Amino acid sequence: MAVCCATAAFAQQAAKSTAAVPRLVKFSGTMTDTAGKPFSGTVGVTFALYEAQEGGAPIWMETQNVQAGGNGEYEALLGSTRNDGIPPEVFGTGERWLGVQAQGETEHPRVLLTSVPYSLKAVDAETLGGLPASAYALAGTVTGTARHAAVGTYPGSPKPAATPATITGAGTAGYIPLWTGTTTLGSSNLLQNSAGQLGIGAQGAAELTVKAVAGNGIYALTDDDAANAFAVEGAVSSSAGIGGAGVIGQSASEGGYGVLAEASATGGTTWGVYAVSASDSGTGVEGVASATSGTTWGVYGTAASVAGFGVKGTATATTGDTFGVYGITASTSGTGVKGVGVAVSQEGATAPIGSGLWGDTSSGSQAVLATADNTAALAAYSKSNSEATVFVENASTEQNSIVLATFGSAFTGYCDAFADGDLTCSGSVGGHAILPDAASGHREVALYAVQAPENWFEDTGSSQLHNGVATVALDADYAQTVNTGMAYQVFLTPDGDCKGLYVSQKSASSFEVHELGGGSSSIAFDYRIMARRKGFENIRMADLTGKTQIGRPLKSARAGAQNAAPRPNAVKGPRAVTVANTRESRVKALLETSKQAK
What we know:
Structural class: mainly beta
Strand content: 25-35%
Radius of gyration: 42 Å
CATH architecture of the domain at 7-125: Sandwich
Helix content: under 10%
Distance between the termini: 64 Å
Largest sheet: 5 strands, mixed
Number of strands: 27
CATH class of the domain at 7-125: Mainly Beta
CATH topology of the domain at 7-125: Immunoglobulin-like
């Protein structure tokens, strides 16, 4: 935000010297963002006074809403958010520099205030104990009669008060008295110790401690919707020390909250909790739930608005290891950050496994959604020697349940991994190889797997004829994976000149190879065996109609899901998708692609 043609003027009344002087400073300027674009409309701005042009902690600050014009111009009365305005001691000795910071922006170069605001201190110097000079009598003006009177008077002095009645009652030391009758005193709920610390209901280590036997300890309410008002505002102005907090909340209840924030507005941009930290090692919001049992939350936020956030975290730095939201759990069955869509699912209610991030939903499209443009939407890294980097499980008891589905929306290609271990893909299943290349050093080529209408296992080997005959034993491990009790296939390739080869005497453990025509050569030969896989002997071109999951068009499903107009960075939830209709449209596209290929 650039401050252009900034001026400061002191608002005061041209009246008698004894008239009350408003402790306000008029300030005007022009606001633009870091890109030079002017602000317009209502803008939240924080004004802070410093003793130096750079560095140091503010000696006074306030936040208020200002109205910016079309070019970003605005005016503000500093001190207008406080009943007593700007304290005179702020303009004691030395220079005063004004820092201006718009909400969501960094503070821009400070502006040196000129002599006008220092008149606040000058006006204070014209009084004695806050009273004008006319409230006091000059020496020698008291009459002789008054000198000898029990109660003297002088011109301009108030009349003597009547002798008070006898005050009775009893109280507790340290408690501020409370009138319990016209002439009796008792103890109130307010107390103050020798250190000057105040308490309401109890005395604590803070400057103000509030204890409620029932109900709210503190309830604050503001009806001001024009200014940037706060029902409760806390600030730590000291730049020294460790552990200072503007607001801190603690709860010893097993079902309580350290800090509970709720934005109940049904429209507009709302935040249950909004916090900003300007420190290089600071934290916007930190929540700690120290109870060892019960349902507790370090931070809990809810928002009823269709465009609101229960909790929102933003890290604006463009470098460094920053986090919008950071969650840690020390429990082996805990969760660092958990998000629930609609409601907790049955699986989520019983799952005991801890995690850094947990997404759960009882309905809707997905528990966790990842989106990206020109980078990976989801990435996982590990160094485990015994655990998978990505683990996917479907607890369904249906054999055709899908565990993992992949889909390319631009090419209508898909692959489905089923709960029974089957893998079905609309395209080729293969691999690739790296070959040397004289021009580029290497090139990569595609390889393709052989596919068949039945589930065959193959084995290959080599043997040799002796006087025209050879007996080949099946590999013992291979024989256990196939059903050799059914017919299996053997293909032969002679490695020398002969009359030809044929197979006979097939059994569950071996087969014989002979030379045609009763030949007696002793040549070597190669063989390939095809046998049906155990458990899949009777399956041929199994019908998968309606059983595959050919992706879901999440991108189109999300369009129009929200009734409210979208706003920047708002995540629109996907609406329900009819999988049957989606599958039918994808199958038609696949068939059309197949026809075009033919």
